[in-house]
Amino acid sequence: MKVLFNCHVPFMLAHGGTQVQIEHTKAALNQVGVETDFLEWWNDRQTADVLHHFGSIPVHTIRLAQEKGWKVVNTILLSETANRARSALLLRRVLIRAVMAVPQLRSLMGQWHSLRLCDRVLISLEAEKQILVRSYGVSENRVGKLPLGLKESFLRAGPGSRTGDYLISHGTITLIKRSVELARLAREARVPILFIGKPFAQADDYWKAFRQLVDDQFVRYRPHVGSEPELIHLLQQARGFVLMSRFENWSLAAHEAAACGLPLLLADLPWSRERFGGQVTYFPKGRASAASALRHFYERCPALSAPRVPFHSWREVAEMLRDIYAQMLDSSIPATPGMTAPRQAVR
Question: Are residues 158 and 248 in the same domain?
Answer without folding.
Answer: yes
